[in-house]
Each structure stands twice: as C-alpha cells, then as structure tokens.
Amino acid sequence: MSPDPEADLARLREIAMALPEAAEKVSHGAPVFYIDKGKTYAWFSHDHHGNGVTAVIVKVSGLDEHEMLVEREPERFHRPAYFRADQWIAIRVDLPDTDWDYIADRVAMSWELVAPRRLLEAGGR
C-alpha cells in the first residue's frame, strides 16, 4: 500500500485534469476522471476491499494489450476487480520505482480511447 495515497492521488489529478474537457467525480467511493457524457478514462484505487494496493486504472485497447502488460510485469499490472479485462488495466503506483511519466502516457492514451471525434480532430491532447 502506498505510504502516501493522497500524494499519489494529487499526482494523478494533475495529470488527468490537464487533458481537454477533463472532469472529476466520485464513483463507488473512488475518484474518477471523465469527459463528454461521463466517459471515464481513469480511476484512482486505494486499498480496494482491503487489498493493500494503490493503483491507477486506465483503458486498454483490448484483451491482447491487457494480457501482454500483465504477462510482462505481473507485480505492476493486474485486472481490477469488477472491470472488464478487455477494457481496463490497473497499474500499481505504490511500488518504489513508479514511473509517473509512464502513468501520464497511459492516462493520455486512455483519454484518447474515450474522447469524442471533435476533441481528437481539434488536436486532442
């Protein structure tokens, strides 16, 4: 579990809210970042059901990408409970070598997967 989940959330919030038309709400007790009619692109998860993990949950392009990430680094990536594996991946941010530039890229890619055409055509992020 992260020694400072509030700092992790603040970092995620800074990344997620920098994207066009970003908004934040609480859903199922967790901070969620979304655009255009509630299309979610990032969640913050801390100690979900007592699992001791702090993670950022983002969209993936499909099951192949999800499986590749989990296979490559199972200690960092996992399928978040209650989320479809073909759509979402959890990235642990409570590990000592968390790469926040990588997290920012994954959040931006997730945003692009849900962004409406008008935002993408306007230059996106």
TrEMBL record:
Example GO molecular function: ligase activity
A Pfam cross-reference name: YjbR
Keyword vocabulary terms for this entry: Ligase, Transferase
InterPro entries: YjbR-like_sf, YjbR/MT2646/Rv2570-like
Protein name according to UniProt: Phosphoribosylglycinamide formyltransferase-1/phosphoribosylamine--glycine ligase / phosphoribosylglycinamide formyltransferase / phosphoribosylformylglycinamidine cyclo-ligase
Source organism of this protein record: Sphingomonas jatrophae
